[in-house]
Amino acid sequence: MSPLTPSSDATFPRVSPGVVTGEDYRTLVSACQKGRYALPAVNVSSSSAANAVLEAAHHNQADIVIQISASGAHFYAGNSLPPSDETRALGAVALAQHVHLLAQHYGVAVILHTDHADRSRLGWLDALIAHNQQHYTQTGRPLFSSHMLDLSSEPVEENIATAATLLKRLAPLNIGLEIELGMTGGEEDGLGHELSDNPSCNLNLYTHPTDVLTAWRKLSPLGMLSIAASFGNVHGVYKPGKVQLRPDLLQQSQTLIAATLDTPPNPVPFVFHGGSGSALADIRQAVEYGVFKFNIDTDTQFATSQGVANYIAAHKEAFIHQVSPNTGKPLKKFYDVRQWMRAGEKSCCERLNEAFLVLGSHKKSIARRP
Ligand SMILES: [Zn+2]
User: Domain residues of the chain, as ranges?
Assistant: First the structure.
């Protein structure tokens, strides 16, 4: 990897701690790409999970992406509320307000993002844009740094045309757009498709560099664009061997675009979906080829659940009795909801410690108090 700019360098770009949007978002993305490191982008669906991610970022002196899916947002709003675009928007807004209020106190920069929205979720994006617009009118800033549109299952022309329409609405609000080209395999939140046991049937998991060029040429002049270009990525953790990761496709895309459009090297901010369970060498290569955002959901969910499971296993009695039948002592301090939730948070943080190291973002926060 290239040498990194020392953090003491006064000319190195800085942003204020807290949620970054607009120019500050651009500055952070470009710092990642120039420094050849990536930020973990962690899916959350509760304030506890958001706090664990902020804690891990603070502990690692690293910047971070906090993102929420449509169903995660429904959960955040409260699963008893009827599922609708507006409920899902309200849940995402609740997370955004939580993070806007607290992020600056953790001393790091945070990108706030929403995850996969296919055509059936365009109404969710409409509702989110309305909330962003309202916040922008009140504060001069949007609620979210960026949103994702995933029309990867549609013909690439339709994907790009809809992305263009959306980007034109997001750009005046200083919000970025992440699109997906080619398909991420596996399933997440009911989106995606199952893998075939025959690797040659999984060819749609690989983006064509020419499609990346077409998308970049048409969309990047319209606003802040990032691309989840699939290179064999799979959501979730699967048995090895079904697909092969090909980060060289990212390199081919960057080289093609730089040569065709006469740009500096690695012009495209790439996003790595389905990061959980990936091999270290593939991750490092992908970051080298311009990945700035590395999505993690499955591994952090597993880590959180493991932390809770281990805690319960160590304090079994307290999850059956309020008072110990053996000692006669109250067990509240063990079954206190905060105790086992905290065990989950700590375990999630430990998994993220690994992620920051692997992605090279440990101690690379560009946030400084003015
Ligand atoms: Zn994804």
Answer: 18-304+351-359
Cα–Cα distance measured from residue 361 to residue 332, given in angstroms and rounded to the nearest whole number: 40
User: What is the CA(235)–ligand 1 centre distance, in A?
Assistant: 6
Q: For residue 248, indicate whether it is catalytic.
A: no
Residue 347 has pLDDT above 90, yes or no: yes
Answer whether residue 3 shows pLDDT above 80: no
pLDDT number for residue 203: 56
For ligand 1, the distance from its centroid to the CA atom of residue 233, given in whole angstroms, is 9
* 18-304+351-359 homologous superfamily: Aldolase class I (3.20.20.70)
Task: Give the integer Cα–Cα distance in Å for 16 and 32.
Answer: 16
| DSSP H or E segment with residue 146 | strand 146-149
Q: Are 177 and 132 in contact (CB under 8 A)?
A: no
- pTM, two decimals, is 0.92
Protein residues within 5 Å, CB atom, of ion ligand 1: 273
Residue 100 is classified by DSSP as H
DSSP 33-91: HHHT--EEEEE--SHHHHHHHHHHHHHTT--EEEEE-HHHHHHHH-TTSPP-HHHHHHH
Distance 115 CA to ligand 1 centre (A): 7
Q: Please give the Cα distance from 109 to 155 (Å, whole number).
A: 36
- Work out the average pLDDT over 106-117: 98
